[in-house]
Each structure stands twice: as structure tokens, then as C-alpha cells.
UniProtKB/TrEMBL annotation:
Residues 166-186, 220-250, 599-629 are annotated as: Disordered. Keywords: Plasmid. Residues 599-608 have a biased composition (Basic residues). This is Uncharacterized protein. It comes from the Bacteria.
Length: 662
């Protein structure tokens, strides 16, 4: 077919859609071949794999095909940003809308930078592809930087193909899909791709723009940079960042992301679901929960009230879980400018090596409940390491327990086991003054040192600080999701157990077809997997779908089952109990300090139930009252615990009259 022919003749009366798709592939393909699907023995297209090769100089293949992004030398001539809203291979309604919003947000950035592109609906399920044609090409290092920067900013982006110059491929615009649909161009045109003049300098500018827009480690702490309503005020006080997200007009460039940040801010502020429902009616930043993306630019249409309530309920539950994880961490880590970038790169390399070790050896962790607990504790230490940016982290037993949903003794046993196995190393032991033990990953996860050459061959450019922090955030989100998915009241020891929680989390991300498949995913013996799956199916937490795979019930029943089993709120009560124990211990340490201080230098301390006439405004350490004593002068720890539980010694409640406290 002559290359002078334009694809515009296909609409109407020219080439058919199949012919236009193949002709576009022939013009754009960086290689002389494409990858194609194969039919099975029954003539069906099962699975999303492209094992065969097909030359581009012949007629179109009879099955769907994918086009390489890089040529044979590893130079990327095409970029494809694949926004996928699937879990365990199946479309998820919430993620599909988030993928559409992410694609629209990236398309707006490309428009601002005058980067010619085409936005496509990749299939009938609603995924998105953004295609960019670079005639001069870019090297794989720049493509990898671009993929990592975009992944840190857009959670639904699958950036693997941008990191794989040899095999990275995607279905081109207009091409057919195995489900009978095809890739449909929503914005742009085939001719714009064919005549694109995008340069490597523009792609480098795009990378810098994505890195500049990347949110911090805790995105709820960053205020919105979008235009905001001047009159919007939350009816209950939020953080300044939360107020900013709530006031963002029409949800900004990415309404689904802004809407979830509103929910996360509300969860941090202690709102109830009724408060969130009230805000969703009018808050500009929660536009995502009132209307949905139609896929036609900025057009949105109202949601049905039932759909709006169900979506808001699901997202609120997720926001509460993430907020609970952030609350365990306490104050945010040091500012970015205070972290040594080179040292942070080493920390990230160690964490990635540790997580690769976990995934590559599932059988090491899953044979027993203790092994599963150790796996979760190792992920928690990795999360703490990323959050602090330090090689050695102080990890209180209670903090690790709350992060993983385990009990404190189970968490302590898991840390001891990881230390004995040589995976973690305790740098500093805990002491009687309240300082927690400090842990670091062992040297087996560290990258091997190599001699530095005076003139190294192909010496790569060192990563910049924004690139390192973007990589840090992407890895932190991955670990956070792993901890959150299995951390619930129903998966505590009194409920279905930690192994059932691990299997539930795995069914969210992978395809599990039967008990043997569950055993393979968990890395455990068949009887353990059978027991975990039996518990999940009995309580209808997972169910079999039309494709014969087991996935979580669309209606999240975890809270309902937790109440049925009598473990509802157990993690919250455990958190409150641990905080109470910390308060009593701090009070006792202050008492010991006073006891070992010369009488003339001791501070004057009132009784715990006394009330000051005025509040001291000078900064300094917390002033504790006298510790309860028995008539014989011995410490009365039970009374101290009761006083702390009643809030008597809390600085926030010192102006309240509490009456007699036993």
C-alpha cells in the first residue's frame, strides 16, 4: 500500500478500521515486526500475551497485535502511557475512573508543553493509552526516568513498557482487542502522530514538569496548586492542606485524586461518614463523587445517588485505613532538603532488594502463621526506613504491631526471628529510659561495591533530587498498600487470622483460580491455603466470578464480618491501649527522674487532680504531676493507669473538672 495515502480517507469511505489500524502500525513501528496473540486449541484468545511475531511488510495479522516502542538499538521512537484500572486482571470501577482522570491530567500537561499526542480508549473496559511519536528518538535512560516520574504522580499508570527497551510494546491506536472492541482515539488524530515533530528536549521538559508536580511522601500534607473557591469553608476544621483540597474548583485537573485527598484529610481530622456525606454535596474539591468522567474532554455527568453513596463509602473506608497507617507513624519525617540524596539512593536500593527477596521466596514466609507475621514486619521496617530516609530506624514494638495489625508480642517475636535469620540487624538495643531498639537491613541486601574507574564506560548521569524523591514516594505507596490491604480487625488472631488477610490482599492484585493456585501465591502448603480460602469464602469476603477466579466481594464485608466474630474495633482499642501504656510509662520515667534529683532541685508538682489557675506559656518538657502512691509510699501503678485513662493528666484536659477519680 503506498505510503503517500492518508488515513483520513478511512473516515468515511476509504480504508476500513482494520486496514487503517494496520497501515498506521506500518508507518509508526520502530521495527520490522510486531508481536501478536495466538489462539488456543479451541480457537479462543485466552490471556493477555503476545508470544508470536509478525512482519509489518505483509497483510495484517488475524489476531490482535502489539507494537514495539523502541527500535533494535534500544532507542525509543514511541512512548505509550498505559493507564490501567484493573485488579487481578478484572476492571475495577473506581480505578477505571481514576485511570481516565489520570490520563486527562497528563494530556493537559502535554498540551501545555506543546507535545503532540493521541489519547485513546484502549478497549471496551475503559482503559487509556496516550501515544507520543518521537521521530528522532530518545535513549532508554530518559524513557526510564520519564516512566518513573509519571508513575510517582499517577497511581494507575503501568510504566513497565517504558523501562523495557527490548520487549516493551502496546496495542497501537485503532487496533482490535481480544474482547471484540478496539482502541478508539478520543483526542488527537492518526495524522498528528504521523507528522509529529516532538524532540528529545521536549521529553526532558516533560520529565521535569512531572517531577515538579509529584506530591510529597504524604500527599495529604501538600495543599492543592489548582484554582480554589474563596468562599468554601469546611464545617469542621481541617488542616490547611485539607481546606485547600476541599476548595479546589471542580476538583482541579484530576478530580478523582483531589476527591480522595479530601477524604484522606477528613479521615486525619476525625470526621465521621455523615460529615463526609454532607461535604460531598457542596465541596468543590469533591466533584468526583457528584459527577463522573464521560471520556469526552472535561465533560462530566451526574452520578446516580446509589452509585454516589456506594463509591463514597468504599473510598472513605480506604481513606480511613491509610490515615490509620499515617497516624501510627506520628509526625512526618525530616524535610526533603535535610535528607542526603546519595544516602537515600542507597536506602532505596536496599529496600527494593529486600522486597525482591520477599517476592522471590514466598515459601520461606508462608509455611506458618509466624512466617507470615515476619513477612509483614519486614515490610513495616521497610516502610519506616523510607518514611524517615535513614539507614537505621527506631522501631518501637507497639508501632510495628499497629502498622501490621499484629499483637505486640507477635511483632516482637517476628523481629527476633528476622534478626536470627540475618535479614535485620539490631544496631541499638532498647533501654529503660523509653528509647526503642534501632534496626537496619542486613548487608546481604546492600549493593556490592565496585572499584571506581578514572574513565568509566557509559557512566550514567547521577539521579537528581526530584527523581530520587519521586522514586521514594512510588516505593512508599507500594509498601503502604501492602500493609493496608491485610490490616483489618477481621484478620486479627481473634478473627480469621493473618494468613487469611494475606490471601485477601493477594486476590486484590493477582488471579487466584483454586486452592492450589492460592497455595502457590502464598507459598504455603495446600492445607493452609485451603483453610484460609475456606474462611474467606464462608464469610463471603471473596467469591468466584464468571472467569472462575476468586476475587474480593464488590461489597466490602470486612467490617460486617468483624462484628459477627466479635472483633470489631479491636485494632482501635489496641491502639488506645498502647497509647495508654506509653503515657503511664512516660509518667513513671518522669517520677524516677524526680526521685533521683536532689530535693532542692526538684520541680514543685501538684496532685494529678489539681487544676492550675493559669496556663504556663513557656516552652519546654511536659510537666507531670506527682505519681500516685500508697499510704506506705509505694508507687500505685493501677491508680496511675486509671488517671491516664480518664484524661486527668493530659495537658488538653487540665481546664476540665473531672470530679473524683479513683
Amino acid at each position: 500500500m503506498p505510503r503517500s495515502r492518508t488515513l483520513s480517507s478511512a473516515f468515511p469511505g476509504g480504508l476500513s478500521l482494520d486496514e487503517a489500524a494496520w497501515e498506521l502500525t506500518r508507518w509508526l513501528s520502530p521495527r520490522d515486526r510486531v508481536t501478536v496473540m495466538r489462539r488456543d486449541a479451541y480457537g479462543q484468545l485466552a490471556g493477555n500475551s503476545y508470544p508470536a511475531r509478525h512482519p509489518v511488510r505483509v497483510q495484517a495479522p488475524s489476531t490482535p497485535w502489539a507494537m514495539y516502542l523502541a527500535d533494535d538499538t534500544g532507542t525509543f521512537r514511541l512512548l505509550c502511557f498505559d493507564f490501567d484500572g484493573k485488579k487481578a486482571g478484572q476492571p475495577d470501577p473506581d480505578l477505571m475512573e481514576a485511570a481516565a482522570d489520570d490520563a486527562d491530567a497528563l494530556s493537559r500537561i502535554l498540551d501545555r508543553l506543546q507535545v503532540t499526542h493521541a489519547l485513546c480508549e484502549s478497549s471496551g473496559t475503559g482503559g487509556r493509552h496516550i501515544w507520543v511519536h518521537i521521530p528522532g528518538g530518545i535513549d532508554k535512560a530518559l524513557a526510564g526516568r520519564l516512566g518513573r516520574a509519571a508513575r510517582a504522580l499517577y497511581s494507575t499508570l503501568d510504566h513497565g513498557m517504558l523501562a523495557n527497551a527490548r520487549e516493551g510494546a502496546a496495542r497501537p491506536p485503532l487496533s482490535p482487542h481480544r474482547d471484540g472492541s478496539r482502541s478508539k482515539i478520543l483526542r488527537g488524530s492518526p495524522e498528528s502522530l504521523l507528522h509529529s515533530e516532538v524532540s528529545a528536549e521536549q521529553i526532558d521538559s516533560l520529565c521535569e514538569a512531572l517531577l515538579a508536580a509529584c506530591p510529597p511522601l504524604v500527599p495529604e500534607a501538600a495543599p492543592s496548586s489548582q484554582p480554589q473557591s474563596k468562599t468554601r469553608r469546611a464545617h469542621r476544621r481541617l488542616s490547611s492542606a485539607g481546606e485547600s483540597h476541599m476548595a479546589t474548583i471542580r476538583g482541579g485537573d484530576n478530580p478523582s485524586w483531589t476527591g480522595f485527598m479530601c477524604l484522606l484529610s477528613a479521615a486525619h481530622a476525625g470526621w465521621s461518614f455523615a460529615d463526609v456525606q454532607r461535604a460531598a454535596e457542596t465541596a468543590p474539591g469533591m466533584e468526583h463523587y457528584r459527577t463522573k468522567n464521560t471520556g469526552r474532554g472535561g465533560a462530566r455527568r451526574p452520578r446516580h445517588p446509589t452509585e454516589r453513596h456506594a463509591r463514597l463509602e468504599r473510598q472513605w473506608a480506604k481513606a480511613q485505613q491509610i490515615a490509620g497507617t499515617h497516624a501510627v507513624l506520628g509526625p512526618s519525617g525530616p524535610p526533603a532538603e535535610a535528607i542526603d540524596v546519595d544516602d537515600l539512593v542507597q536506602r532505596l536500593d536496599v529496600i527494593e532488594a529486600a522486597m525482591t527477596h520477599i517476592r522471590a521466596t514466598p515459601g520461606r514466609w508462608a509455611h506458618t502463621e509466624a512466617g507470615q507475621s515476619a513477612r509483614s514486619v519486614l515490610a513495616a521496617i521497610a516502610y519506616l526506613t523510607i518514611a524517615t530516609g535513614k539507614a537505621t530506624v527506631a522501631a518501637p514494638i507497639r508501632t510495628v504491631a499497629l502498622l501490621t495489625g499484629l499483637g505486640r508480642t507477635t511483632a516482637a517475636d517476628a523481629l527476633r526471628r528476622l534478626s536470627d535469620d540475618g535479614l535485620l540487624r539490631r544496631s541499638v538495643a532498647s533501654d529503660d529510659t523509653g528509647n526503642a531498639a534501632e534496626w537496619r537491613f542486613s548487608d546481604r541486601f546492600s549493593t556490592a561495591s565496585v572499584p571506581v574507574r578514572s574513565q568509566p564506560i557509559k557512566n550514567p548521569r547521577p539521579p537528581t533530587a526530584p527523581e530520587v524523591f519521586a522514586r521514594r514516594r512510588a516505593l512508599a505507596v507500594e509498601l503502604e498498600n501492602e500493609l493496608v490491604d491485610g490490616r483489618h480487625d477481621v484478620f486479627t488472631r481473634g478473627g480469621l487470622g493473618h494468613m487469611a488477610g494475606r490471601l485477601f490482599a493477594e486476590t486484590r492484585e493477582r488471579t487466584v483460580t483454586d486452592e492450589a493456585d492460592a497455595a502457590r501465591v502464598l507459598g504455603t502448603v495446600l492445607r493452609h491455603a485451603r483453610r484460609a480460602m475456606s474462611r474467606l469464602t464462608h464469610h463471603k469476603l471473596i467469591r468466584r466470578h464468571a472467569d472462575l477466579s476468586w476475587r474480593p466481594n464488590p461489597r466490602d464485608r470486612r467490617a460486617i464480618v468483624a462484628k459477627e466474630l466479635g472483633v470489631g474495633g479491636v485494632l482501635q482499642r489496641r491502639s488506645e491501649r498502647y497509647q495508654l501504656e506509653r503515657e503511664v510509662w512516660s509518667w513513671w520515667l518522669a517520677e524516677l527522674d524526680a526521685m533521683h534529683t536532689a530535693p532542692r532541685r526538684r520541680r514543685r508538682r501538684g496532685h494529678a487532680t489539681s487544676r492550675p489557675l493559669f496556663e504556663g506559656s513557656s516552652p519546654g518538657e511536659r510537666s507531670w504531676p506527682r505519681y500516685p502512691r500508697t499510704p506506705a509510699g509505694l508507687a500505685e501503678h493501677r491508680a496511675a493507669r486509671s488517671l491516664v485513662a480518664a484524661g486527668v493528666v493530659s495537658p488538653e484536659s487540665r481546664w476540665q473538672y473531672l470530679g473524683d477519680v479513683a
